[in-house]
Amino acid sequence: MTTTDASNRQSTGGSKYTGPIIDTDVHETFTKWTDLVPYLKEPWRGLITNGAWQGTGNPHVHWAANGVNRGDSQPADGAPAGSNYELLREQILETYPITHAILTGQFMPAVMPMQFEFATALANAYNNFVSDHWLARDTRLRASIQLAPQDPQAAAREIDRLGPDPRFVQILLPIGQWSYGDPFYNPIFEAAARHNLVVAFHHTGAVESALGKGRYYIEWHINVPQGAMATLTSLVVNGIFDKFPTLRFCILESGYSWLPHLLWRMDQNYRSLHLEIPWVKQLPSKYILERVKFSTQPTEDTSVENWLRLHDMLGTDKLLVFATDYPHWDFDSPEESVPRALPADLRRKIFYDNAQELFGFQD
C-alpha cells in the first residue's frame, strides 16, 4: 500500500476547498460538575453539592501519555478543553467556513454501569445545560440529545421532550456496552423515528477488541472500529432497519476504511444463513449504503488513489460526512484530512452535501 503523510497528500495537486462545511463531531463540555446543579432535582442535586459523587469514574478509560486534547485547546483559565465557547468559535467556527457544527459532548452518562435513574437525570441536566450555554450563543451550533440507554423508557421520554426543538438534530448512543439490536432498546428508536432524528453512535472507552481490554491506550485506539462493526451487525441482524424504515444513522469517530470488508462479509453470510434471520428482507449492504453515514475522522493517512479506490469499492459517494473531532489530539482539519486532489464534487459531498442531506438542513 502506498501511504503518505498529511502534507504529502495535499501536495498532489488541486485547489483549496473554499465551500461550506458541516462539522459532524465537535466535543463541547462544561467547566465543572457543579455547572449541572441548577438543572438537577433532589436527591441528584445533593450528590454533587455535598461531594458524594465525584464524576462518572469511568473504569474503561486508558491513560493517554499526552492527554486526549489539542495543546492549544486548553483555555487560559485552566478550564477543560472544549468548555470555552469563545475559544471553540475562534479555533473552529471562525477558522473554517463552517455553516453548522454538531455538538456531541465529552460527557456520556450512558457509560455509568449503575444507578440508572441518576444517569438519566444527568443526561437530562446536561441537555438543558447545552441548550442554555451553547445553543443559545451561536445559531451555527446544533446538538445531540444525550441519553442513558440503560433505561430505554426514560430515554424515550427525553427524546420526546427535546425532539420538537430543531436545534437538537440527533440522539447520541455510545458504542461499547450495549447491543442496540436487542428489542429492549426499541423504545429509543421509536422515539427517534417519531421526531425524525438521526441516530448517531460514538465510541467510548468501553470498546474492547476480540481479545478483550488491551493493556495500552494505543491498543484501544487502534481497535475502535471493532465496536462500530459489532454495532452495525447488531442493528442489521436484529431487524432494526426493517422495524424503523425512516430512521437514518451515523457512525462517528470510528473510521470507515474497514467498511468494504464488513459489507462483503455480511452479504456473504446473509446469502448462506438468512434462514436464521427471516425478518431481514434485504442484503445488509443495501441497508447500510442507503441509510448510514460515517464521519471522516479519524482519516487514515493514505494516497488519493486509495481514497478513490475505496469509493469505487463502496459504489457510492454519499457515505462520508466531515468531522474535526475538536478538541481532541487527532483533530482533522479541513485543509489536511480530505486531499485536494480528490474531484471537486466528491469533496463538496464529503464536506457539506452528505451531511446536509442527513440532517435535512435548509441552507
From TrEMBL:
Residues 60-361 form the Amidohydrolase-related domain. GO terms for cellular component: cytoplasm. Keywords: Hydrolase, Lyase. One of its GO terms (biological process) is secondary metabolic process. Residues 1-20 are annotated as: Disordered. InterPro entries: ACMSD, Amidohydro-rel, Metal_Hydrolase. Residues 1-15 have a biased composition (Polar residues). One of its GO terms (molecular function) is carboxy-lyase activity. This is Amidohydrolase. It comes from Dictyobacter alpinus. The lineage of its organism: Bacteria, Bacillati, Chloroflexota, Ktedonobacteria, Ktedonobacterales.
